[in-house]
Amino acid sequence: MIPPIANRFVAGETHGAVVDHARELETRGVRSICNRLGEHYTAPEPAAADRDAYRSLLDAIAAADVGACISVKPSQIGLDVSEDCFRDNFEQIVDHAEESGTFVWLDMEDHSTTDPTLDAYTHHANEYERVGVCVQANLKRTPEDLRRLADYPGKVRLVKGAYDEPGHLAHRGRAQVNDAYRGCLDVMFERFDGGIAVASHDAAMVKHAVDLREEWGTDFEIQMLMGVRNEVQYDLADRYDVWQYVPYGGKWFSYFSRRVMERRENLTFALRALVGR
């Protein structure tokens, strides 16, 4: 069982827990992107197990008729085993999602995974439009990737990027990354007909997207993490299409630790929970 100190950031350990969280979020006008925690499997068996767990989650979402979709990490379903393993497992997940019309996001990991991740996305986007992929604004290649992705009918989620990438491949300073994020949004609103997901808790980035929508007339959605600026998410949902990224599963501790350490307000929350205040 996940302790109270962690359940701000992780929905629970089971399909039932994450579906219950999605149902509660829906009453606040926010929909859920459900991610089963796990990554960097180097053997095919755990990758296959998480593939099957996602298929079961898709069944649970469909049975509950709740506003939710799923998001999958490539290394979780076999990319560290082989690209063929990853592509086969992802295809089985997408095929299962197609039966119920559920959306499937493909997360992005470090720069070494960019090409196989984008290749898998573009392959499926031509056949099943309810797929999306994440790209990272800190990578210097991303504006060109976005120009190519504009030709596909799926969705693209833009994040700032959380991996410590080498300087010749990525923008590293905060101001540089912010400028890169704005530049990527400029490309997306200019070239995309829709399917833009602004995944940021930075109010300035959301404001830039709002301004671009006024200029280009292109709708977008906002995505934020569970447990980070929740009240802001509920407020934004009155005016925009808002989705919350909702982790769940037994591998919750390392994820929770990262969330606590990355923002001062998260650390304050955790400390108060520890002392019962």
UniProtKB/TrEMBL annotation:
<keyword id="KW-0274">FAD</keyword>
<dbReference type="InterPro" id="IPR015659">
    <property type="entry name" value="Proline_oxidase"/>
</dbReference>
<dbReference type="GO" id="GO:0000166">
    <property type="term" value="F:nucleotide binding"/>
</dbReference>
<keyword id="KW-0642">Proline metabolism</keyword>
<keyword id="KW-0560">Oxidoreductase</keyword>
<dbReference type="InterPro" id="IPR008219">
    <property type="entry name" value="PRODH_bac_arc"/>
</dbReference>
<dbReference type="GO" id="GO:0010133">
    <property type="term" value="P:L-proline catabolic process to L-glutamate"/>
</dbReference>
<feature type="domain" description="Proline dehydrogenase">
    <location>
        <begin position="19"/>
        <end position="269"/>
    </location>
</feature>
<dbReference type="Pfam" id="PF01619">
    <property type="entry name" value="Pro_dh"/>
</dbReference>
<comment type="pathway">
    <text>Amino-acid degradation; L-proline degradation into L-glutamate; L-glutamate from L-proline: step 1/2.</text>
</comment>
<keyword id="KW-0285">Flavoprotein</keyword>
<dbReference type="InterPro" id="IPR002872">
    <property type="entry name" value="Proline_DH_dom"/>
</dbReference>
<keyword id="KW-0547">Nucleotide-binding</keyword>
<protein>
    <recommendedName>
        <fullName>proline dehydrogenase</fullName>
        <ecNumber>1.5.5.2</ecNumber>
    </recommendedName>
</protein>
<dbReference type="GO" id="GO:0004657">
    <property type="term" value="F:proline dehydrogenase activity"/>
</dbReference>
<dbReference type="InterPro" id="IPR029041">
    <property type="entry name" value="FAD-linked_oxidoreductase-like"/>
</dbReference>
